[in-house]
Amino acid sequence: MQAATTPAVASALAPGALPRIALRNVTKSFPTPDGGRYQALGGVSFDVAPGEFVSVVGPSGCGKSTLLRLVAGLDRPDEGEIRRDGQPVGGIDRRLGFVFQQDALLPWRTVYENVALGLRIRRLPPAEVRERAREWIARVGLRGFEDYYPARLSGGMRKRVAIAQTLCYEPDVILMDEPFAHLDVQTRYYVEEDLMRLCIDGQRTILFVTHDLDEAIGLADRVVVLSAGPRSRVRAEEAVPLPRPRNLLAVRAQPGFTALATRLWQLLFEEVSRVYGRGTG
Amino acid sequence: MSTAAVPASAAPARSRRLPLGRRGLSRLLLAAAVLALWELGVQLGVIDPFFFSSPSAIAAMLARQFGSGTIYKHLVVTLQEALGGLVLGFVGGAALAWLVTRSALLADLVEPVLLLLNSVPRIVLAPLFVLWLGIGLPSKIAVAFFLVFVVIFFAVAAGIREVDRALVERIVVLGGSTRDLLLEVYIPSVLAWVFASLRVAVGFAFTGAIVGEFVGASSGLGYLLNFAQGSQNAALMMATVVVIMVLIAGLFVALEQVERRLLAWK
C-alpha cells in the first residue's frame, strides 16, 4: 500500500529521458527448506537515472540483495519487468559491474591478475589489459602489491582490488551489495572516500545496497527505502539535498543530512519493528 | 623450565626447535649412530646377519646391483607400472568425478560402489588382476590404477563440489564463458584438493605395482624382493627396500617442489 503513496518515481529524470535502470512491479520468491515459498519482493518499482547514485536501504531479509541479482541478470524476476536503457534485462549484462559483499577475489591469482580478470575475459589485447590494470591498481593505491596473493592482503586492500577489478573494464552501471559491511570503521571511511573519488563522475550509474543509513545518505543522490519482507516494496524515495563533491565526515554535520537521516531512521525503524513484532507475536 | 625464561616476544613453539641446518645434522647423526650400532652388533656376533644382514653387506649389495646394472631393469619395470597406474588412475578418476558431478543419476549409481571400495583394502584384488591379465606389465598397472583411481575420484569430486559459489558468480558476472569458469575457478580449486591426496596416490601406485609383482611377475622390484626372500638373501632384500624407499622419497621431494610452485597462493 505504501508504494501507492510513493512520490513521483522518475524524480531524478529529465522529462522524456530514458532511465538507465527501470524496475516495474518486480516480484521474486524462493523455495524454502520446508517446501513452501518465501516471497522476498512483492512488486518493487523505481527508476535510476543515467549517472545517478542510488542507495537502497531496508531491514535485513527485505530482498535488497535479490534486487541487485535481478538487475545483474543473475536471476529472473517472477513477475514485473526490469529494463536497462529501455531494453528488458535477459541474462548477464557485460556493461555492468557488480561488487559483492564478500570480495570474491580468486585466491590463486595475484592482485594484478585479479584486477585484469574482467579485461582478459573480454579478450582485450594484452598490451591494453596490462596498461589498464596497472593504471587502476595505482588509482586504488595498491602500486607495489601487484604480485601479492589475496590471502596476504588486509580487508580494505582486498576491497580495493575488487573495486579496481570492477572499474577497470569501465562498466556504465555498477551494483554494490553491502560492499563495505565487513570493514572496520576507519578502513571503511577511506574506501568510501576512494569510491566517491573514482566512481562519481556523473557518467557511471550506481545502485548501492547497504543497511547503514549514514553510508547510504553520505554517498548517494537518492535513497530508496524498502519495506520489511516478505513481499517488500518501495516504502519511500528521498533525494539527498547535499552538494558534491562531499567530504564524508563533514557532510554528516550538515542540517540537510541530519534532517534526512532522522526521517529515514523513523521509516526504517517502523519497518524493523514490524519484523520484530511478527517475530515475537 | 628454561622456556619460562624466554621473553614473550619469542614464539614458544618454535624456540624449542633447532634451526634447520642443525636439525638436519642431528638427524643424520642419529641415522649414522643406528647404522654403526647395527654394524657393531653384527661384528660382535650379537645380531645374526642371516636374518638382519649388515649395513656393510647391504652397501656392498647395492654397489654390486648398480655396478652390474641388473637393478636398472627392475627399477624401470616398477617405475613404468607405478607411473602408468598413476596417470591412468588420475585420468580415469578425474573423468568419472566430472561425470558424477554432472549427473545425479550417475552419482546415485556410482558413488555407493566407490565408497565401499574406498573403505576396503583394494590390494586384496591383486591376485585377481594377475589371474586375468597375466604376469606382465598390464596386471600391475591395473592394480596400481585400481588403488589410485578411487583416491583421485574422491579428491576431484570434492574439489568440484566444494568450489566457492561466490567465485563462480564473480566470473559469470564478469561475462566469463564456460572455458573461463574452468580455467579460473574449477581447475585451480580441484588442483588444491588433488594435491592434498597426491602423496597418498603416489604411495598407492607403488604399493599396487610392487604387491602385484609379489603375486606374480618375472621382473620389477617386488619380484626382486620375492626372489631375495625365496633365496633367503637378507642383504638383497634390504638393498631392494632401500632402493624402493629412496625412489619414493625422491618422488615426494619432487612433488613438494611442484606443489610449492602451484599452490604458492595458499
Indicate the low-confidence ranges of chain A by residue numbers.
Answer: 1-10
Strand element count of chain A: 10
Name of the level-1 CATH class of the largest domain in chain B: Mainly Alpha
If you consult CATH, what is the topology of the largest domain in chain B?
A: MetI-like fold
Number of strands of chain B: 0
Instruction: Supply Rg of chain B.
Output: 24 Å
Residues in β-strands, percent of chain A: 15-25%
Strand order of the largest sheet of chain A: 6-7-8-3-9-10
| Terminal CA distance of chain B | 36 Å
> How would you spell out the order of helices and strands of chain B?
HHHHHHHHHHHH
Q: In the CATH hierarchy, what is the architecture of the largest domain in chain B at level 2?
A: Orthogonal Bundle
- The CATH homologous superfamily of the largest domain in chain B is called MetI-like
The CATH topology of the domain at 2-94 and 204-280 in chain A is what? Rossmann fold
Helix segment tally of chain A: 8
Q: State the helicity of chain B in percent bands.
A: over 70%
Helix content of chain A: 25-40%
Mean pLDDT of chain B: 88
Please indicate the count of domains of chain B.
Answer: 2
Topology:
The complex is a heterodimer of chains A (281) and B (266).
Chain A: E1 21-31, E2 37-48, E3 53-57, H1 64-72, E4 79-84, E5 87-88, E6 96-99, H2 111-121, H3 126-139, H4 155-167, E7 173-177, H5 185-199, E8 205-209, H6 213-219, E9 222-226, E10 234-239, H7 248-251, H8 255-280
Parallel strand pairs in A: 3-8, 3-9, 6-7, 7-8
Antiparallel strand pairs in A: 1-2, 1-4, 4-5, 9-10
Chain B: H1 12-15, H2 20-43, H3 49-52, H4 55-68, H5 70-102, H6 104-119, H7 126-133, H8 137-161, H9 165-173, H10 178-215, H11 221-230, H12 234-262
Helix pairs in contact in B: 4-12, 5-6, 5-8, 5-10, 5-11, 7-8, 7-10, 8-10, 9-10, 10-11, 10-12, 11-12
